[in-house]
Protein backbone atom coordinates (compact mmCIF):
# COMPACT_ATOMS: atom_id res chain seq x y z
CA UNK A 1 0.00 0.00 0.00
CA UNK A 2 2.83 2.45 0.71
CA UNK A 3 4.71 3.72 -2.36
CA UNK A 4 7.27 5.81 -0.47
CA UNK A 5 8.02 7.43 2.86
CA UNK A 6 9.58 10.87 3.06
CA UNK A 7 11.19 12.52 6.09
CA UNK A 8 12.34 16.11 6.35
CA UNK A 9 15.93 17.11 6.96
CA UNK A 10 17.69 20.43 7.54
CA UNK A 11 21.01 19.13 6.19
CA UNK A 12 20.63 16.95 3.09
CA UNK A 13 24.34 16.14 2.82
CA UNK A 14 24.51 14.97 6.44
CA UNK A 15 21.28 12.97 6.11
CA UNK A 16 22.56 11.45 2.87
CA UNK A 17 25.81 10.32 4.46
CA UNK A 18 23.90 8.81 7.41
CA UNK A 19 21.37 6.89 5.30
CA UNK A 20 23.97 5.86 2.67
CA UNK A 21 25.98 4.10 5.38
CA UNK A 22 22.97 2.73 7.26
CA UNK A 23 21.07 1.35 4.28
CA UNK A 24 24.18 -0.18 2.71
CA UNK A 25 24.00 -2.66 5.59
CA UNK A 26 20.70 -3.98 4.20
CA UNK A 27 21.42 -3.71 0.48
CA UNK A 28 19.84 -0.28 0.09
CA UNK A 29 21.29 2.50 -2.01
CA UNK A 30 20.42 5.85 -3.53
CA UNK A 31 18.21 5.40 -6.58
CA UNK A 32 17.34 9.04 -7.19
CA UNK A 33 18.80 12.31 -5.94
CA UNK A 34 18.40 16.02 -6.60
CA UNK A 35 19.58 19.09 -4.74
CA UNK A 36 16.36 18.81 -2.64
CA UNK A 37 15.89 15.10 -1.88
CA UNK A 38 17.41 11.60 -1.94
CA UNK A 39 15.44 8.38 -2.53
CA UNK A 40 16.65 4.96 -1.40
CA UNK A 41 15.57 1.44 -2.33
CA UNK A 42 16.83 -2.08 -1.79
CA UNK A 43 15.67 -2.98 -5.30
CA UNK A 44 13.27 -5.65 -4.09
CA UNK A 45 9.88 -4.02 -4.16
CA UNK A 46 10.11 -0.58 -5.80
CA UNK A 47 9.16 1.18 -2.57
CA UNK A 48 11.27 4.12 -1.54
CA UNK A 49 12.54 5.80 1.59
CA UNK A 50 13.28 9.47 0.98
CA UNK A 51 14.80 12.39 2.85
CA UNK A 52 14.05 15.91 1.71
CA UNK A 53 14.54 19.56 2.37
CA UNK A 54 11.00 20.86 3.01
CA UNK A 55 9.45 22.23 -0.15
CA UNK A 56 7.85 25.17 1.68
CA UNK A 57 11.31 26.50 2.53
CA UNK A 58 10.64 26.27 6.26
CA UNK A 59 12.77 24.30 8.69
CA UNK A 60 12.12 20.55 8.91
CA UNK A 61 10.50 19.45 12.15
CA UNK A 62 9.61 16.14 13.78
CA UNK A 63 6.00 14.96 13.79
CA UNK A 64 4.70 14.08 17.24
CA UNK A 65 3.67 10.43 17.09
CA UNK A 66 5.23 9.94 13.65
CA UNK A 67 7.52 6.96 13.12
CA UNK A 68 8.76 4.92 10.17
CA UNK A 69 9.26 1.16 10.61
CA UNK A 70 11.76 -0.52 8.28
CA UNK A 71 11.73 -4.28 7.68
CA UNK A 72 14.76 -6.32 8.67
CA UNK A 73 15.23 -9.93 7.56
CA UNK A 74 15.75 -11.30 11.09
CA UNK A 75 16.56 -10.38 14.70
CA UNK A 76 20.29 -10.37 14.03
CA UNK A 77 19.82 -7.75 11.32
CA UNK A 78 17.63 -5.63 13.64
CA UNK A 79 20.49 -5.71 16.18
CA UNK A 80 23.09 -4.92 13.50
CA UNK A 81 21.13 -2.04 11.97
CA UNK A 82 20.30 -0.47 15.33
CA UNK A 83 23.97 -0.61 16.36
CA UNK A 84 24.98 0.86 12.98
CA UNK A 85 22.49 3.73 13.33
CA UNK A 86 23.86 4.56 16.79
CA UNK A 87 27.45 4.39 15.53
CA UNK A 88 26.51 6.90 12.82
CA UNK A 89 25.21 9.38 15.39
CA UNK A 90 21.57 8.38 15.85
CA UNK A 91 20.00 8.58 19.32
CA UNK A 92 18.73 5.40 20.98
CA UNK A 93 14.96 5.32 21.43
CA UNK A 94 14.66 1.66 22.44
CA UNK A 95 17.15 -1.19 22.44
CA UNK A 96 16.48 -4.30 20.35
CA UNK A 97 13.96 -6.62 21.93
CA UNK A 98 10.60 -8.35 21.79
CA UNK A 99 7.68 -5.94 21.89
CA UNK A 100 3.97 -6.26 22.60
CA UNK A 101 2.48 -8.62 20.06
CA UNK A 102 5.69 -10.66 19.78
CA UNK A 103 7.52 -8.70 17.09
CA UNK A 104 11.19 -7.81 17.49
CA UNK A 105 12.24 -4.18 17.04
CA UNK A 106 14.79 -1.48 17.87
CA UNK A 107 14.12 2.27 17.80
CA UNK A 108 16.28 5.31 17.05
CA UNK A 109 16.15 8.97 16.04
CA UNK A 110 18.21 10.27 13.13
CA UNK A 111 20.16 13.53 13.33
CA UNK A 112 17.04 15.56 12.49
CA UNK A 113 15.09 13.89 15.31
CA UNK A 114 12.94 11.69 13.06
CA UNK A 115 11.92 8.47 14.86
CA UNK A 116 12.47 5.18 13.03
CA UNK A 117 12.72 1.53 13.89
CA UNK A 118 13.90 -1.72 12.41
CA UNK A 119 11.49 -4.60 12.83
CA UNK A 120 11.14 -8.29 12.08
CA UNK A 121 8.02 -10.31 12.72
CA UNK A 122 9.76 -13.59 13.60
Structural write-up:
By secondary structure, this protein is of the alpha/beta class. It has one domain: 2,3-Dihydroxybiphenyl 1,2-Dioxygenase, domain 1, CATH 3.10.180.10. Helices cover 21% and strands 36% of the residues. It has 2 helices and 8 strands; from the N terminus they run βαββββαβββ. The strands form 2 sheets. The protein has a 4-stranded mixed sheet, with helices on one face. Strand 7 and strand 8 form a beta hairpin. The radius of gyration is 14 Å and the shape is globular. The relative contact order is 0.21. The mean pLDDT is 94.
Properties at a glance:
2,3-Dihydroxybiphenyl 1,2-Dioxygenase, domain 1; 21% helix; 4-stranded mixed sheet; alpha/beta
TL;DR of this structure?
With 122 residues, the protein is an alpha/beta fold.
- Principal-axis shape: globular
| Class by alpha and beta content | alpha/beta
Mean pLDDT: 94
Main β-sheet, spatial strand arrangement: 1-4-3-2
**Low-pLDDT ranges:** none
Largest sheet: 4 strands, mixed
Report how far the terminal alpha carbons are from each other. Answer: 22 Å
Number of strands: 8
CATH superfamily: 2,3-Dihydroxybiphenyl 1,2-Dioxygenase, domain 1
Assign a percent range to the helix content: 10-25%
Quickly count the helices.
Answer: 2
